[in-house]
Design brief:
The chain is built from 6 helices and 7 strands, in the order αβααβββαβαβαβ. The chain is α+β, with helices and mostly antiparallel strands. The chain has one domain: Aminopeptidase (3-Layer(aba) Sandwich), CATH 3.40.630.30. A 7-stranded mixed sheet has the order 1-2-3-4-5-7-6, covered by helices on one side. The chain starts with a helix and ends with a strand.
């Protein structure tokens, strides 16, 4: 009976797929308001369309860091928000690229995204690190940087 439980949990587990990024699809789906709060920009060297059970649910960008560290940019399409997909998408990204730490830089005004990241185990970088990042021009005072170890 235990084997049945393992198989049924695997089958019922939602499926996240990272597929080739399509800029035309991104521009068609993402609203100006969404783009003001979060966007996938040219800094992201690796970009994906994200599918949940074969339906487009968002976009994710990855800026590879040293070794097993990555910096992410993510947008989940409005109708898919609030279903716990953020955690699944990040797990798929971590698995695909064998990452041990992810950083997410988020606009402070995007409170929903900050809360969602904290809920799945991301932590804020220290105040001194924040000041250093701002001073070096790597982030603005309107942003927060969160990280998570995997």
């Amino acid at each position: 009976m235990d084997g049945y439980k393992i198989i049924s949990e695997f089958i019922l587990q939602p499926m996240i797929q990272l597929k080739s990024f399509d800029i035309n699809l991104y521009n068609k789906v993402i609203t100006k308001k969404d783009n003001q709060l979060a966007h996938i920009d040219n800094q992201s060297k690796i970009k994906y369309n994200v599918y949940y059970n074969n339906e487009l649910c968002g976009f994710v960008g990855l800026i590879p860091g040293n070794k097993d560290v990555g910096f992410t940019q993510i947008i989940i399409i409005k109708q898919f928000r609030g279903y716990g997909l953020l955690k699944l998408i990040y797990q798929a990204l971590v698995n695909k690229h064998r990452l041990k730490r992810l950083y997410a830089r988020i606009m402070k005004s995007n409170v929903r995204s900050v809360k969602a990241h904290l809920k799945i185990g991301f932590k804020e970088i220290s105040e001194e690190e924040t000041k250093a990042q701002i001073k070096m021009g790597r982030m603005s005072r309107y942003q927060t940087t969160l990280y998570k170890d995997y």
